[in-house]
Amino acid sequence: MFDVDFFKIYNDTFGHLAGDNCLRKIIKCIAPITNKGTVEVYRFGGDEFIILIEEPDERVIKNFLENLILAVNNAKIEAPKYLTSKYVTISVGASTIEANENYSYINQADRNLYECKEKNKGKVCYNGTNLD
After folding, report:
1. What are the tens digits of pLDDT across the range 22-73?
2. CB of 130 within 8 A of CB of 124?
3. N or C: which end of the chain has fewer CB within 10 A?
4. Would you give the DSSP letter of residue 29?
5. Which residues fall within 8 angstroms of residue 3, CB to CB, at 6 or more apart?
């Protein structure tokens, strides 16, 4: 799961139409790495998105998530001048499950996302740890 850091401030500064355009730019810049048969992207609400990846290798997942953040960083979408970053960033909360596990991976990813946003934005939190 990922969301746009400081998106409310972005909307308040530039307006909701610009916010919608920002989301489109983000989806466009991550499309090359998410347009694969084993990756599905869903808008969860507002500026939150869920990405489902069928990949058993955690190193591949880590690399994918880092490339996701890098793609948004490289898009250089202008952020409001008084924020910590010159450009829009995203934070990612990730979780893995086995096909037979019976718990909500969405809830786990959501907890990881908000833990990451509290520690430092623009990073990936994966099962309680920052991936750097």
Report:
1. 999 999 999 999 887 788 899 988 999 999 888 778 888 889 999 999 999 9
2. yes
3. C
4. H
5. 46, 47, 48, 49, 90, 91, 113, 117
pLDDT, mean of residues 89-102: 76
CA distance 54 to 132: 22
Q: Residue 52: which of 8, 96, 104, 118 has the closest Cα?
A: 96
pTM strictly above 0.70: yes
Mean pLDDT (whole number) for 79-102? 81
SS (H, E, C) 69-131: HHHHHHHCCECCCCCCCCECCEEEEECCCCCCCCCCHHHHHHHHHHHHHHHCCCCEEECCEEE
Task: Tell me if the domain spanning 2-131 has CATH number 1.10.10.10.
Answer: no
User: Among candidates 104, 126, 3, 128, which has minimal Cα distance to 59?
Assistant: 126
- What is the band of 102 on the pLDDT scale with cuts at 50, 70, 90? low
- Residue carrying structure tokens 């202008």: 78
Structure tokens at 50: 């869920």
Q: From residue 62, how far is each of 16, 24, 46, 88 by CA, in Å?
A: 32, 24, 25, 21
